[in-house]
Specification:
By secondary structure, the protein is an all-alpha fold. It has a single domain, classed as Orthogonal Bundle (ABC transporter involved in vitamin B12 uptake, BtuC), CATH 1.10.3470. 77% of the residues lie in helices and 1% in strands. It has 15 helices and 2 strands. A two-stranded antiparallel ribbon has the order 1-2. Strand 1 and strand 2 form a beta hairpin. Helix 3 runs parallel beside helix 8 and helix 3 packs across helix 12. The N and C termini lie far apart (44 Å). The mean pLDDT is 87.
């Protein structure tokens, strides 16, 4: 009996050691800690209504972090995702009417627009060869300018039944924001079964080596931005439904938050290392940080400082595995 217990304990310890080597492991530790803190500050944290309310806010950030994660895994970066989300809300809010047909067509158009924006960035990063940091910084200004042209001030129209649907449930079991998130995760599961998934990691890890192996690096980079456009579209739609208004500035904060979520989740900014699951965890961590600051009744004067401080601490914990690897090399 003692041997069985010892063997099970040993197996559990070995499993824990192996899992701790994963780049996203520190993020899971931070996530558990933040869940505990949120639960202590908010007694109803685990209630159905609270979970639904939280994911109404979390889902756009999670989806845009998945988009950013795909791009960073390919060894690139996108500083225009937030402006792209804003542009999407303005386009959709300027075209929506009370007709169900209108909603379906505008949603499809929104997805097409987001994918086109991703392809636009992908052409510069993949085929033109411009550094993504510079090219997407430029397209960020272009997308924001287009959003301001369409809607200089927050406005437009979103049908009541549409945004109320987002605040409802599917079969009174699954909150709609979680349902949309599951759709996004399902899309990623499908992508993981394709050769493109392997190529993205190969190009992100070693672009020259991937090219030598016969992989068309420029096409893979383009495809990464296009695939990210699908998740950015879902994020933009969720943002529109959560605010029920088109706003040229609504998505701007999501750019840096998505990068922070990706890094907190253990994805290397150099590309080729990490997982989209880590990006999801990183985004939830950022969402929980906002909750903590709110329920802790931190003064609005110090909220920005508190959020930045906690993000820095989270990023530092996420960097622990990398520091270990560097120390071993030395």
């Amino acid at each position: 009996m003692d041997r069985v217990v010892k063997n099970r304990t040993s197996s559990f310890i070995d499993l824990l050691k192996n899992y701790s080597k994963d780049s996203s492991f520190p993020a899971f530790i931070v996530l558990v800690l933040l869940v505990a803190i949120n639960a202590s500050l908010q007694p109803t944290f685990f209630s159905y209504d609270s979970i639904k309310s939280n994911f109404m806010t979390f889902t756009p950030l999670i989806l845009i972090s998945m988009a950013q994660g795909i791009i960073i895994l390919s060894g690139n970066l996108d500083l225009s995702v937030g402006a792209g989300m804003s542009l999407l809300t303005c386009v959709m809010a300027s075209l929506l009417t009370d007709s169900i047909t209108s909603v379906i067509l505008v949603v499809l158009l929104g997805i097409a627009v987001s994918v086109a924006l991703g392809a636009f960035n992908g052409v510069f990063a993949g085929h033109v060869g411009l550094p993504p940091l510079i090219s997407t910084f430029a397209t960020n200004a272009i997308f924001f300018g287009l959003a301001m042209t369409i809607m200089p001030l927050p406005g437009g129209y979103v049908p009541k039944f549409f945004y109320r649907w987002y605040r409802g449930d599917i079969l009174k079991v699954i909150p709609v924001p979680i349902f949309i998130l599951l759709i996004g995760i399902g899309v990623w599961v499908i992508i993981k079964r394709t050769a493109v998934y392997r190529y993205i990691y190969a190009v992100g890890g070693n672009a020259e080596g991937a090219y030598s192996s016969g992989i068309k690096v420029s096409n893979v980079k383009l495809m990464a931005y296009v695939l990210a456009g699908i998740f950015a579209a879902l994020a933009g739609i969720c943002l529109l439904l959560s605010t029920a208004i088109g706003d040229p500035r609504a998505g701007l904060s999501y750019t840096l938050n998505s990068v922070a979520a990706v890094v907190i989740g253990g994805i290397s900014l150099k590309g080729g290392k990490g997982s989209i699951g880590g990006a999801i965890v990183g985004a939830i961590i950022l969402g929980l940080l906002i909750n903590i600051i709110f329920f802790a009744q931190v003064s609005s004067l110090y909220q920005g400082f508190a959020r930045g401080l906690i993000i820095v601490i989270s990023l530092s914990l996420a960097a622990i595995p990398k520091l270990r690897e560097e120390s071993r090399k030395i």
